[in-house]
């Protein structure tokens, strides 16, 4: 045996031998009730990892339907797909909530190019959502590079007839990449508002990513209150192309950039939120929402954004049913429509909840990708926040250490209220902006185990919230 | 502004607006010295994320040299590459440690096939390291499926002339995938010893992976004390092929499996550990080793196993130098040779350390892939273990929550001693066995930020160990 071991990859074997049985949690430190919870949580994880359905659901959605921008035929297909799937999982009731959504279309593939030092360079760009088209012949203009809205604003009329190029990169020293995104996305959203005002001819924006690569990242933009005649075409350019253009501008400040896009905003289109629920056994009038968004951008297949959130949300209900966990409150799974460019589905859902005097006591949203679990972000009153944080000891063994106060999500956000506990699922963020809103957001970027661990993480916190939140007092908003 | 926000991806913006500045750590809870440490650790992370070199080093190693099995021309190239790189980084001294290594070669691509129900199926297999070849014409035999060494042992002479098929899969409910590996790898390592004894004709082993896919995973095996004439050919088959074969055997227990491989073990070959160091400013006679292994299996490019460990180890030294952190003890970077099939480099290193009366006070090994950081595993005496665990508050903001007692690594393991603090870097393990020892262990599977966060995590714990371990007493083994 010894001799055999000498010839093997000892490090791995050592790990194995030292810890043959995985000691998930030190049960001596738990109360009787916590031990029961710990067992139930382990059951949910085992079930997700051995019998999870989310990965195959996601494969189906992303490869057979693909990208599903609001108003598109694919979004309509996704609604049918979602309703059918919820029925297959056997939810107690499933229905569609009609909602009118914006209907922006990209049109033909965008073209961008410039010539400097005798060399013509083709530039990977894509129109931003809600942007207007260029004239059919495209636009050609000199470029002014800026790093912020303030810098652009200060240019004033100097930008007239020019293309303004926003090129402030992500701050890669921020460990949470969503914060880096938050530090840059104003350029994408508001760039055209600032520059349209002063008569710029167009706007190009560095793609929102930590990486230096060749993929333009789309996303929504706005013209604010600008009158229509001041709406100027706006596009994202890949981060590598942004670096190269910036270098070229230093050498040749008068170079002319050409781009052409044919996108347009059509009249609003009819669509739906897809809703299904497991009725609560004790207080069915109290509702927990678990959801993600069904729409996606059009460039990729909407795998991490937010196919993973959709299938994980449904898997929460699937895991409850499979393991015969009967929630005392109603668990409602919602596939929200139109998170990406309008959040109309979220608003409609909240509006109907109010209209129907529904009693929402909490929500959980998964819209930060399908990577390995890290924790949850809590938007709730202090006592409920503390309660959720106290579950760290039960959840940390599954990698869920980061359970802190913070935002929840765009789709459940409108349900906010003093006694409503909203939670955002927070997987590891390091790779998210490699794929976000690009052509590379495809099924092959999702790891089966990471996805399933996410489903189980979500199911576990829903199990705990259902059991412990509002335990003593009936809740009425 | 409000109107603009309505049209944007509100969830992400909310996150951003709530937390514009990343609050890495609550500095009110730190002592003056800890604040200084916290600042230095942040500097190391910033530096790795903004100016890290590890990703480009890894690209070079994996794409220009590729897989580098001990004794191969590529392993020899990797030694030259490593020595050159250490010199470029500007270590105080760089040298090679000669070591003789096993020299096993795969030969021609393996072939496996069987026919059942009139259909011929080609099976993805690969020879296991140290396996003998089949006869030139291959072997053809009936198959007996077993799930364990015990089950095989119990078969006794019934396996004579048969191929024994080990098919116990990973336990996917284990959160740490290394534990699942540890629960299965005995089949790969010892299967041939058990079956050769009873006259089996060959052994095939289910690949060591959590996934169900088409890639055979190689790895080392052993014939234990069996005489040469009982050495039988041994191969890994892909997990999907294992499932299919198992199904087919249920329907047709007499099907005959054919495989052919031409691998062989040549005489030991000369090779080297690559060693470089930064001399300590106060107690240079005390040495901390930081390392990974330079060799890899031949099927892929050895990216996660262990190219990432190599480049991260060197990046520790690079980050120290770049940020003018002068260790009081000597920091020695070692690219160990032959971890995969022999750990001869590790043994030689420890042997020379003893011979030269070197004073090793600790070591850090990275050989668990280049994924997002999770923590460290500590093999040390109780007081040093407690000290390292007390650094959680400084390291947790970077995702390093799992700092626990456990094994360290195969290459630094031989340095173990009462006053030696050995640490294994532990990144997230979920994706590791998708790539481990297969053709898919290539550069594109490594994420730049995850790799760099690992380098910075390692540099941070080396910084703390250098500063605080053995602070009061001079160490002599």
Commentary on this structure:
Chain A is an alpha/beta fold. In chain A, 36% of the residues lie in helices and 23% in strands. Chain A has 15 helices and 16 strands. In chain A, the strands form 2 sheets. Chain A has an 8-stranded mixed beta sheet with strand order 1-10-12-11-13-16-14-15, sandwiched between helices. In chain A, strands 3-2-9-5-6-7-8-4 form an 8-stranded mixed beta sheet, with helices on both faces. In chain A, strand 5, helix 6 (149-155) and strand 6 (163-166) form a beta-alpha-beta unit. In chain A, helix 3 packs antiparallel against helix 15 (448-468), helix 4 runs antiparallel to helix 10 and helix 10 (303-322) packs across helix 15. Chains A, B: It comes from Polaribacter haliotis. Chains A, B: It is found in: Endoplasmic reticulum; Golgi apparatus; Lysosome; Secreted. Chains A, B: Pfam families: Peptidase_M28 (PF04389).
């Amino acid at each position: 045996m010894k001799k055999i071991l000498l010839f093997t990859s000892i490090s791995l074997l050592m790990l194995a031998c030292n810890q043959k049985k995985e000691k998930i949690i030190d049960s001596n430190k738990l109360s009787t009730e916590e031990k029961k919870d710990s067992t139930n949580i382990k059951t949910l994880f085992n079930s997700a990892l051995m019998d999870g359905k989310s990965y195959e659901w996601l494969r189906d959605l992303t490869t057979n339907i693909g990208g599903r921008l609001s108003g598109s035929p694919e979004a309509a297909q996704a609604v049918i797909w979602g309703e059918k799937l919820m029925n297959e999982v056997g939810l107690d009731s499933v229905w569609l909530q009609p909602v009118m959504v914006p209907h922006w279309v990209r049109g033909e593939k965008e073209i961008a190019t410039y010539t400097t030092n005798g060399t013509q360079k083709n530039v990977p760009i894509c129109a931003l959502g809600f942007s207007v088209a260029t004239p059919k012949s495209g636009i050609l203009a000199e470029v002014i590079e800026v790093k912020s809205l303030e810098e652009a604003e200060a240019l004033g009329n100097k930008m007239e007839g020019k293309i303004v190029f926003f090129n402030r990169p992500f701050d890669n020293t921020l460990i949470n990449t969503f914060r880096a995104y938050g530090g840059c996305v104003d350029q994408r959203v508001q760039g055209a508002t600032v520059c349209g005002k002063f008569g710029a001819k167009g706007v190009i924006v560095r793609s929102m990513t930590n990486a230096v690569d060749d993929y333009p990242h789309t996303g929504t933009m706005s013209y604010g209150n600008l009158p229509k005649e001041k709406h100027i075409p706006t596009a994202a350019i890949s981060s590598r192309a942004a670096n190269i253009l910036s270098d070229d501008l230093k050498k040749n400040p008068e170079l002319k950039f050409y781009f052409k896009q044919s996108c347009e905003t059509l009249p609003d289109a009819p669509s739906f939120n897809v809703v299904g629920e497991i009725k609560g056994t004790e207080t069915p009038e109290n509702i927990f929402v678990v959801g993600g968004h069904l729409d996606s951008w059009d460039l990729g297949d909407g795998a991490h954004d937010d196919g993973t959130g959709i299938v994980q949300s449904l898997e929460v209900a699937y895991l409850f049913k499979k393991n015969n966990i009967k929630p005392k409150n109603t668990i409602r799974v919602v596939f929200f429509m139109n998170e990406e460019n309008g959040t109309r589905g979220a608003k409609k859902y909240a509006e109907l909840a109010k209209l129907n005097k529904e009693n929402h006591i909490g929500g959980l949203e998964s819209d930060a990708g399908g990577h390995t679990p890290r924790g949850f972000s809590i938007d709730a009153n202090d006592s409920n926040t503390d309660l959720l944080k106290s579950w760290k000891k039960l959840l940390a063994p599954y990698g869920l250490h980061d359970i802190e106060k913070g935002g929840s999500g765009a789709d459940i956000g409108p349900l906010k209220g003093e006694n409503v506990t909203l939670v955002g699922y927070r997987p590891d963020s390091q790779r998210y902006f490699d794929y976000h809103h690009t052509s590379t957001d495809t099924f092959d970027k999702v790891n089966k185990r990471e996805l399933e661990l996410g489903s189980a993480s979500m199911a576990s916190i829903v199990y705990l919230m259902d059991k412990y939140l509002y335990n003593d007092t009936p809740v009425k908003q």
